[in-house]
Design goal:
Shape: globular
Order of helices and strands: HHHEEHHHEHHHHHHHHHHHHEEEEHHHEE
Structural class: alpha+beta
Strand order of the largest sheet: 1-2-7-4
Number of helices: 21
Helix content: 40-55%
Radius of gyration: 24 Å
Mean pLDDT: 88
Largest sheet: 4 strands, mixed
Distance between the termini: 85 Å
Low-confidence stretches: none
């Protein structure tokens, strides 16, 4: 009996301590002159998403809309108090003007200060402080317009291969009495993205359409397997318990996955150095970075006006010089990040663009007319479209810009305060944001705020026409993030999305089919970014 009472006492004591641990910060905002969301044990304000009542998109929008008149308010990520900023001027103040106070991303347990052996720990997205500044400056010259122009031929080559494959499939379908191809386009775009990354980043020739089980795509699917329970648990751990994950030194990648990417990239670099091989891809640029020869050129001057509305501008941080020497391991980490970001996020963006064009046939027809005219200007000499010509297609850019507004892959962006900051909105609201606190911005919340976008649920490329785009406040359109810590690969992503739309829509009309879910619905999951039934569309050949 005594043992039972002792056990009961220990259990009750442990529960009380756990409750106290999770709730001790719940009154953090009580003395702040801003509203805050009332937290609930144990998830804070993440309960609806954690309990799978809403999707990630819905949850991020709900948070943004909680206090429509507030410029900033408080909320809780599990037990951790955070600020959510919803005013574009304050967003600009924090992420640009006072960037020195908000340099880092929120610690996730995947940074090199806590988990040095992890490949992701050395990637640009995880680096902090001065090391991030130096890596950003090192990589910045690799993502300029002039470098994209050089790599565009590799992407075009992948697009031609994809189109040829589906033309062959159409011929087979017609022989069997079918007029078009019903395809799950997220799978199609993932294969295309895999081929692009293989050739443009790793210098490896892969064909994921004719060889769908190649090692490169198999490893990619393994790493990003959203149905894996173990992967899901690790994602939750990094998101909600970063210190514990760092303490336990749990790596997001399996040993096999880690060995594959380290070995593949290191071997490619070694062979190229020994045989003096040049190829205009990311590996070549990383090798130049290692030698210290990757520099900004006069032709790298900002060309945002001609490269698309969504293109982000590089800050002076990315254009500075430094004398830091990088190890092979640190450079391999950047190539891996390029793979992880390019494989999943870009393939989703391309899928969303095709989905919107399929259910908005008038928009697709207008875009096709522009693409057809551009092709006609090339003549019959077999000349392919150039990088400059692709970027000059205004309606194409409008369609891509609107896709990224309605379907931003990064629904939230965060910044960690690295030194105490005095918040002052100029209207009498003043308080201190202490070092270590995290500031959130709901990208999808800003993109769907009716204050900035009329009828935000509607897919309307005209928002980004020449006459309308001047009315869009920069702080309300942030598909690639904002400030010096924006997405370094925006030019590459835009080039790839535009290229696939150009080559695909010239050959195929994309339409809904019986399996198309309208409207598109997402799974209510904390760890999975996936639609309920895939993104099914039909590809109908425009000509024989």
């Amino acid at each position: 009996m005594e043992i039972s009472l002792l056990t009961l006492g220990l259990v009750v004591g442990a529960l009380v301590m756990a409750y106290r641990f999770f709730t001790k910060n719940y009154f953090y905002f009580a003395d702040k002159p801003i509203p805050f969301l009332k937290p609930s044990f144990p998830f804070g304000n993440q309960g609806p998403m954690m309990m799978r009542k809403v999707t990630i998109f819905q949850h991020s929008r709900m948070l943004h809309e909680a206090f429509p008149d507030a410029r900033v308010f408080g909320m809780f990520h599990m037990r951790q108090p955070m600020y959510l900023v919803r005013d574009p001027e304050i967003i600009k103040q924090i992420t640009v003007k006072d960037f020195d106070h908000f340099v880092d991303h929120m610690a996730t347990g995947m940074d090199d200060n806590t988990n040095d052996d992890m490949l992701l720990a050395h990637s640009l997205i995880s680096l902090r402080g001065q090391k991030w500044r130096d890596m950003r400056a090192t990589l910045s010259p690799a993502f300029t317009g002039s470098k994209m122009r050089i790599m565009f031929g590799l992407i075009a080559e992948c697009a031609h291969s994809m189109i040829a494959y589906y033309r062959e499939e159409v011929t087979k379908a017609r022989a069997n009495g079918h007029g078009g191809l019903q395809l799950e386009v997220k799978d199609v775009m993932s294969r295309f993205a895999n081929d692009v990354i293989g050739t443009a980043a790793f210098g490896i020739k892969v064909d994921s359409f004719r060889d769908p089980q190649n090692e490169f795509i198999s490893m990619g699917r393994s790493i990003l397997n959203q149905e894996s329970v173990w992967k899901g648990l690790k994602l939750l751990g990094f998101a909600f318990f970063p210190k514990l994950m760092a303490l336990l030194k749990i790596d997001f990648l399996s040993k096999e996955e880690d060995r594959f990417f380290r070995g593949t990239i290191a071997e490619t670099m070694r062979v190229r150095e020994e045989q003096n091989i040049f190829r205009p891809d990311m590996i070549e640029l990383l090798m130049q970075a290692k030698k210290g020869t990757l520099k900004h050129q006069p032709t790298d001057e900002p060309q945002v006006a001609t490269e698309g509305f969504a293109t982000v501008q590089e800050s002076q941080i990315g254009r500075r010089t430094h004398d830091r020497r990088w190890t092979d391991n640190e450079l391999v980490a950047q190539a891996f990040l390029f793979f992880a970001a390019g494989y999943e996020t870009i393939s989703w963006s391309m899928s969303f663009a095709l989905y919107e064009l399929a259910i908005n046939q008038d928009i697709q027809q207008k875009l096709f007319a522009e693409l057809h005219e551009a092709e006609a200007e090339l003549g019959d000499g077999g000349e392919d479209i150039s990088y400059e010509k692709l970027q000059s297609l205004r309606y194409l850019d409008m369609v891509v810009s609107e896709t990224l507004r309605k379907w931003p892959i990064a629904v939230m962006v965060n910044r960690e305060c690295v030194q105490d900051y005095e918040y002052n909105d100029g209207n009498g609201t003043k308080f201190s944001i202490e070092k270590g606190m995290v500031v959130l911005i709901s990208i999808i919340g800003m993109h769907f705020d009716p204050k900035y976008y009329t009828d935000p649920e509607r897919f309307d490329p005209e928002r980004f026409s020449e006459e309308n785009r001047k009315n869009i406040h920069p702080g309300t359109y942030i598909p690639f993030g904002v400030g010096p810590r924006n997405c370094i690969g925006s030019r590459f992503a835009l080039m790839e999305i535009k290229a696939v739309l150009y080559y695909l829509l010239k050959q195929f009309r994309v339409v809904p089919c019986a399996r198309t879910q309208i409207p598109l619905q997402f799974k209510k999951s904390v760890t999975q970014f996936a639609t309920e039934h895939g993104v099914w569309l039909e590809f109908q050949p425009r000509s024989s």
